[in-house]
Amino acid sequence: MKFAVIGGTGLIGSQVVKKLNAAGHEAVPHSLSTGIDVITGRGVEEAVAGADGVVNLTNSPTFDDASPAFFQTSMDNLLAAGHKGGVGHFVILSIVGADQVPNLAYYRAKVLQEDILKAGPIPYSIVRATQFMEFIAAVMSWSTEGDTVRLPTTALQPIAAQDLSDTVAEVAAGTPLNATLNIGGPDVRPLDELGRMTLNARPDGRTVVTDDTAGMFAAVDGDVLITKGDARIAPTHYTDWLA
Ligand SMILES: NC(=O)c1ccc[n+]([C@@H]2O[C@H](COP(=O)([O-])OP(=O)(O)OC[C@H]3O[C@@H](n4cnc5c(N)ncnc54)[C@H](OP(=O)(O)O)[C@@H]3O)[C@@H](O)[C@H]2O)c1
Predict the structure, then answer these.
(1) What sections of the chain are H helices per DSSP?
(2) Which ligand 1 atom is at minimum distance from the Cα of 32?
(3) Is ligand 1 within 6 A of the CB of residue 7?
(4) Closest CA to 17 of 28, 31, 7
(5) CATH code of the domain in which 74 resides
(6) 3-class DSSP assignment, residue 189
(7) Does ligand 1 lie within 6 Å of residue 39's CB atom?
(8) Distance of alpha carbon 13 from the chain centroid
(9) Predicted confidence (pLDDT) per residue in 56-112, tens digit
(10) Domain span at residue 37?
(11) 155 CA to middle of ligand 1, Å?
(12) pTM of the entire structure?
């Protein structure tokens, strides 16, 4: 099968391209750096023309109030081009529990992206994943001041990008689900503990201070970002990933 992987140079996109090609498909990465722009529409029709499936793994450059407009415009452009080009399956990657965090613009933006896809003209699959293990260091950097990293006790269930990419590639190559598949990592831990584990494995002079008001995850209540009963659980543990 032929795939246009939009955002195919990113963390997940680049691995999905490799996995689809290794499975015998023809997957082509497209992104700003390959010359397309999902916001202006430049190159989008050409990118998706002739593809059996489109896998949209782009991300908004910011997580703030500008993110809903990014997902609205990019989905409008990609769905219009995909429909015109006869694409038979459109896949996006969203976030477990995104609809449970309406006070964060980025999570609202991901729900908007899902809603646009569901209302659109192309058979679809939505993969909702928990937070990437690769993302923990970035989260820590956002609330670092000097040698202190302030982190809340928010429960997270980190997943390795490798594991998630296997599932995204598998879903893309399958029959459209016209539904959502949830996937998370094997362990649930508070974010402050994940920060301490990270610095134990990779000491850099910083220490973690628990602060339930710190950073974007402070806005998250209880276990809303944790998978529930019907989810797929990925194999890689954070301790092994860190090692
Ligand atoms: N972070 C998490 O823990 C998490 C959890 C669940 C789901 N997700 C979702 O996973 C998806 C992929 O995330 P990621 O971390 O793999 O993303 P990423 O590494 O930041 O990659 C983003 C990709 O989007 C491309 N891009 C950005 N703006 C574009 C534009 N205007 N036109 C064309 N391409 C554009 C980038 O192109 P260039 O490289 O050429 O600039 C890059 O290929 C996101 O939708 C995110 O919401 C994330």
Answers:
(1) 11-22, 44-48, 67-84, 105-119, 133-142, 161-173, 191-201, 238-242
(2) 40
(3) yes
(4) 28
(5) 3.40.50.720
(6) strand
(7) yes
(8) 10
(9) 999 999 999 999 999 999 999 999 999 999 999 999 999 999 999 999 999 999 999
(10) 2-242
(11) 23
(12) 0.98
